[in-house]
Each structure stands twice: as structure tokens, then as C-alpha cells.
Design goal:
heterodimer; A: 444 residues; alpha+beta; Cytochrome-c3 Hydrogenase, chain B; three-stranded antiparallel β-sheet; 18 helices; globular; B: 232 residues; Beta Polymerase, domain 2; five-stranded mixed β-sheet; two-stranded parallel ribbon; elongated
Chain lengths: 444, 232
């Protein structure tokens, strides 16, 4: 570029400026230079979605390369919610581990806890009592419903069906109320513990759950009435985010997405745990392999979960909810006091004024924890988003040597390029929402 | 760690020891301070032999079938050690043969491990080959599980990538690289995934402290958690 002082400019008239000299950028090879770096001339735009964007399910970042409105490439970038849960676990005892893993996938805390506890129990070579297993199943299925409701709600919100969001979160609230009554907390409850569960169901627990089981089918009918026949909903989801069985298997995608492609792979059926083999339920599948099929599958799975819950309630028999071995079971019994849930006063009286040995035992078990024989195990359960695996390694100490969470959100997100490339930008959102990723789980 | 509270002698016993056994080192397994805050740097596992003792064969169940088929396909030396523990089969293999083994595991009719469930790393700081990479494979056809394990040292932490066989290993290998510094040869784009791109060190290694990051907040210098309070 040249800027000759007194040359007449073909494009701009001379004018006075308040300061300095006016330069015009024309002439020479400037046009060529601009053309070579201008992305518009290649008709490709790089659009960055997220990490803070309501349509990306938390702090997920998608870098999309667009040609017009067609997505040519998507690169998911994760890690914004990495909290070092796996590292932290190595500095806490085995029981405290539940309070960490429960915070990974925050929409499915009971699943994180159960998978972790099954791994610890396998390392210890113990099994939770029957009642504890039944309670785990009931709580997991309630949690699966609440997670699927959020999936429906957020997908609805992202595709413009705002009523679905309101209803989905409203009904999830019902389940969170049950969780609060049972565990004292709505999320991140650390309710499932190695050896059983923290406490038995409260007196009104079974009734609350039964009321919910009676209430929910009506809600599901409403959602189907809202969405299934809705032309906009159909247009936005059918044929969108296609991923067939071979794609799912290659990319390791499990859960509703795999079943929406037609493969009835559900760990509750294929590799049962917690006594799932005793329950009568179906594994819904679909041949659509698209966002629509995943919507249908999730609704059907909620109905199956309701079946499991009512069977679980029938199965509940009186009994212990924690292993009898006092070297593993948490010593303190919880009770509701004037200031909320806490150690029962009977227990406090026992250790403080009756038995020195009980106090020592309590102290040792709570601060140091129990030792777990050395070795490694892998346990996997069917979480709402797919296979949730825990690879637990013990060195024989009171703290985990290594815990790895095989998080379905993390694995499933790999398939976003396969789902979205070649489609429209709006379908990136629909396809991503149909995977139902939870970044807390993905980034851990 | 220098102090040995139990006074059983500082060096490792010469004989073969079960994998990863921790010898007690005083109250709560810590050596110098009584810090149970979690930030104090716990004394970890004792040195363990590099050689992993195999379980006696026959292994029972479908395990013999898997090991037999694998040896038939790739030669007897493909399995470095075969361990059956708690009803789970672990096949230890060489780090430069992971891709080959995985391909055989996936494609052979009698094996059919179509699905790679999980790839994770483990750091055994006192072993010669301290960085372990663990693959959990699932056969949907036969409903079986198997664990493949390989180990590399810090001097050459290279493992063959299995992404060509199992594309799902892509992000998981990136995570293992990010957290442990295992380099996967043949991975299409081995970059950090959970930690920021410019992060230094590999956080899940045992010699990497928990916390340890100083931050500045509104002009004040906040020391890392392990330096905030002295327990000495």
C-alpha cells in the first residue's frame, strides 16, 4: 500500500481531519491481500457456540465451520467443568468417595454413587443386604425418571417447546422432594454407601413414591399430547442427528442413543446388578436412530422405570440396609433432631458416656476409614445416559489408589461431529440435545 | 518419604509381593505429620515388583477360551501375564502391541469384543514401568468382559494408540495423555482434553500434588491449599 501525500483519491474526497493524516487503503495488491485472508470469500464461517450458551447443556464449547447454514465441521471442546473429582478421591477415604462421585453427573447422582459403591463392594468381596439393593433400584429408577425429564425439558426448551421445559422441571421437582424426604438432600445426596445405603426409607417414603408412581403416567400422556403430534417438534427431530448402530458401537455410544438405533443393549438386562434380573420390564428400542427416536425411547423408558419402581416397592421387606460388619458399616445412625438431620442422640450418648471402645471405633472408622484389599475391579451400570463404569484400584489402604469414571456423557459427546456434520446449524442443537450430555459428568 | 514410623526398615523386601500392597506406615498411613486434610501428601504404596505374577492356569470359565484364542492368533508371547482376580480377567500385554491385540480381540469370531468400554490410566509410582494403561473391553455377542493392561516407564511413555480399532478410544486416550503423560503413538491429534492447553504437568500422577496452585484474587495472593496451614 502506498499513501502518496497529494495524490487524488478515486474513492474518497479529500477532507480535513481533526488529527493526523488520512490514509486510504487502495491500490497495489491490497485487494488481493484482503481476498486471501477474508473468510467470506471461501464462504466458510467459523462460529463458536459456547462455552456459556444456553443451548450447549452447560459449559460445552462447539466450534462449527459453516458454509452458509450447513455445518461442515464441528469440534467439541470440553474440560471447562473439570473439578478433579478422580484426583480428589485419592485423598479421601473410601466412604467419603461417595460424596465426590455423586457430584460428577449431577443429574444422576444416585447412579454415580451406586456404581462407585458396587466397585468398592466388589473389591471388599461383600454384598449389600437385599433391602438396600431394592432401595437402590427404586432410587435409581426415580433418578432415571428425573434425569430423562430434564432431558425432555431442556430439549424442549432448545427447540422452542417452552411448555415442555416448565412441565419437565415441575415433575422433576416432585422426585427431588422424594429424594429430600429420603436422603435429606435434593441432589448430590451421598445416600448410597459402600455396604448399603445411608439410612432406611422414612415412614412416609413408600407412600410418597407410590403417589408419584400413580401421578406420573398422566404427566407422560400430557407430554405426548404436547409433543408427539406437534408438527414443529416432528420437523425439528425426525431425521436429525442420525447415528446408526455401527456408528454408536465404534464411538462407544451407549444408553438411549444406542437403543434408539435399534440395539437392545441395556446393562440392567444384559449384565444385571443390584438384582435387576428379578424385575419384569422391557428394553424399548426404535429404528429411527435420530433425535425423534431418542425422544420416544426416553418417554418409553420412563414408563418402564415406573413399572420397576412399583415392583421394587412390592419387594421391600423389613431388614437391614447396611452390611452387618461393623468394621465397614458407618457407625453413626442418623436421626432427625431439632436442628435437622444429624447423628442420633442415642448414638452420641453411647459413644460419649457409655463405651470408650465404641468411641474409639467410631473415631477410627470415621477419620481413617476401612481398609480395602489390594486389587482392581471394573463395574458398570446403566445410567440414564448410558454405561457408567467405575475402574477402582486399591493398594490395600484406606483411600482409593485410583478411581476412573467411564462417564457416558464424555464418551457420547465424541459423536457430535458424526451427528451434526453435513446438517444444518440448528440441527447441531437438536442433535446435541438428543445426546443429553451433562458436563459435570463429562469433565468430572 | 524418609521417615518410617513402623520401623520395619526402609527398603522393599526382595521377594515377590502381591500387587500393590501397602505396608502400614503409622496412624492413617501417613509418615511424618498427622495431617488428614488430604493435602498433606500421603505416603503411598510400597515398591512392587515389575513382574506381575500370573494366576495359575486353567483360569476357569470363559477366561481360558479368551486367552487361548488370543495366543493362537498372535503367538504365546502376546500375554505377558494373565491375572484372574475377583472374577475379572486381566491380560497384561506389551505397549507396542495394544493395537494388534485389540484388532484381534475385536475381529476374531471366538472373541468378538466389539465394544471398548473404557480406557484409563493408573500411576504406580514405585514400579519401573509406572504408567499403566487399562482397557476394558466388552463382547456384546458373548456378554463377556476382559481387561487389557499395559505398562510403560517415564523414559519412554509410548503406547500404541487403539483409535484405529476403537474410535471411541480417541478422547479417552487424550485424557490418559492429559492426566498421566502417556503418549499414544498413532493417535490422530493427541492434545490435552480436560486441562487447559497450556497446563504444565500431568495431574493424575502420584507425584503431582493435590491443590498446589496459587491464585491471585482482588490483589491478594492466595497460597495453594497445601501451604495454607502448617500442620508441622
Amino acid at each position: 500500500m502506498t499513501a502518496t501525500e497529494n495524490a487524488a483519491d478515486a474513492y474518497a474526497a479529500e477532507r480535513d481531519t481533526t488529527e493526523g493524516r488520512v490514509y486510504t487503503v487502495t491500490g497495489g495488491d491490497w485487494d488481493e491481500l484482503v481476498a486471501s485472508v477474508d473468510p467470506v470469500s471461501e464462504e466458510r464461517l467459523i462460529v463458536n457456540l459456547g462455552p456459556q450458551h444456553p443451548s450447549t447443556h452447560g459449559v460445552l464449547r462447539l466450534v462449527c465451520e459453516l458454509e452458509g447454514e450447513t455445518v461442515r465441521s464441528v469440534r467439541p471442546i470440553v474440560g471447562y467443568l473439570h473439578t478433579g473429582i478422580e484426583k480428589n478421591l485419592e485423598y479421601r477415604n473410601w466412604t467419603q468417595g461417595t460424596t465426590f462421585v455423586t457430584r460428577a453427573d449431577y443429574l444422576a447422582p444416585i447412579f454415580n454413587e451406586t456404581a462407585y459403591c458396587l466397585a468398592v463392594e466388589k473389591l471388599l468381596g461383600i454384598e449389600a443386604p437385599k433391602r438396600a439393593n431394592t432401595i437402590r433400584v427404586i432410587m435409581m429408577e426415580l433418578n432415571r425418571i428425573s434425569s430423562h425429564l430434564v432431558a425432555l425439558a431442556t430439549t424442549g426448551m432448545e427447540l422452542g417447546a417452552l411448555s415442555m421445559m416448565i412441565y419437565g422441571f415441575r415433575d422433576r421437582e416432585y422426585i427431588l422432594d422424594i429424594f429430600e424426604a429420603v436422603c435429606g438432600l435434593r441432589m448430590n445426596m451421598a445416600y448410597v454407601r459402600p455396604g448399603g445405603v445411608a439410612q432406611d426409607l422414612p415412614a412416609n417414603g413408600v407412600k410418597m413414591i407410590r403417589d408419584f408412581v400413580d401421578y406420573m403416567p398422566k404427566g407422560l400422556d400430557d407430554y405426548e399430547g404436547l409433543l408427539t403430534g406437534n408438527a414443529i417438534w416432528q420437523e425439528r427431530t425426525q431425521g436429525v442427528g442420525y447415528l446408526d448402530v455401527s456408528g454408536c458401537l465404534a464411538l462407544g455410544v451407549t444408553g438411549p442413543v444406542l437403543r434408539s438405533a435399534g440395539l437392545a443393549w441395556d446393562l440392567r438386562k444384559t449384565m444385571p446388578y443390584c438384582g435387576y434380573e428379578e424385575y419384569d420390564f422391557e428394553v424399548p428400542t426404535h429404528n429411527g436412530a435420530d433425535a425423534w427416536a431418542r425422544y420416544v425411547i426416553r418417554l418409553a423408558e420412563i414408563r418402564e422405570s415406573l413399572k420397576i419402581i412399583s415392583q421394587g416397592l412390592d419387594k421391600l421387606e423389613p431388614g437391614p440396609v447396611m452390611v452387618e460388619d461393623k468394621k465397614i458399616a458407618w457407625p453413626a445412625q442418623l436421626a432427625l433432631g431439632g436442628d435437622g438431620m444429624g447423628n442420633s442422640l442415642n448414638h452420641i450418648r453411647h459413644i460419649m458416656s457409655q463405651s470408650m471402645e465404641a468411641l474409639i471405633h467410631h473415631f477410627k472408622l470415621v477419620t481413617e476409614g476401612f481398609r480395602v484389599p489390594a486389587g482392581q475391579v471394573y463395574t458398570s451400570i446403566e445410567a440414564p445416559r448410558g454405561e457408567l463404569g467405575i475402574h477402582a484400584v486399591s493398594d490395600g489402604g484406606t483411600r482409593p489408589f485410583r478411581i476412573h469414571m467411564r462417564e457416558p456423557s464424555f464418551i457420547n459427546l465424541q459423536s457430535i461431529p458424526a451427528l451434526a456434520e453435513g446438517g444444518l446449524l440448528a440441527d447441531v442443537i437438536a442433535g446435541g440435545a438428543s445426546l443429553d450430555p451433562v458436563m459435570g459428568g463429562c469433565d468430572r | 518419604m524418609s521417615a518410617d514410623a513402623t520401623g520395619t526398615g526402609g527398603s522393599a523386601p526382595d521377594g515377590v509381593q502381591p500387587v500393590g500392597v501397602q505396608r502400614p506406615k503409622g496412624l492413617f498411613g501417613v509418615a511424618d505429620t498427622g495431617d488428614t486434610s488430604g493435602f498433606g501428601g500421603l505416603v503411598r504404596a510400597e515398591p512392587t515388583p515389575a513382574e506381575i505374577p500370573s494366576s495359575p492356569e486353567p483360569l476357569g470359565g470363559y477366561f481360558d477360551e479368551i486367552v487361548g484364542a488370543l495366543r493362537e492368533l498372535l503367538g504365546d508371547d502376546v500375554t505377558r501375564a494373565v491375572v484372574v482376580d475377583r472374577g475379572e480377567l486381566t491380560i497384561h500385554i506389551a505397549p507396542d502391541r495394544t493395537a494388534e491385540v485389540c484388532r484381534a480381540m475385536r475381529d476374531d469370531e471366538s472373541l468378538r469384543f466389539e465394544f471398548c468400554a473404557s480406557v484409563s490410566g493408573v500411576d504406580y509410582p514405585d514400579r519401573r514401568n509406572r504408567l499403566h494403561v487399562v482397557y476394558h473391553l466388552t463382547s456384546m455377542t458373548y456378554r463377556r468382559n476382559v481387561r487389557l493392561e499395559t505398562a510403560v516407564g517415564l523414559d519412554n511413555p509410548t503406547v500404541q494408540s487403539v483409535t484405529a480399532v476403537y474410535p471411541t478410544a480417541d478422547w479417552q486416550e487424550r485424557e490418559a495423555y492429559d492426566m498421566f503423560g502417556v503418549v499414544f503413538e498413532g493417535h490422530p491429534h493427541l492434545t490435552r482434553i480436560l486441562m487447559p492447553d497450556d497446563w504444565e504437568g500431568h495431574p493424575q500422577r502420584k507425584d503431582y500434588p493435590l491443590g498446589g496452585i496459587a491464585v491471585e484474587y482482588k490483589g491478594a495472593h492466595i497460597p495453594p491449599p497445601d501451604e495454607r496451614r502448617a500442620y508441622k
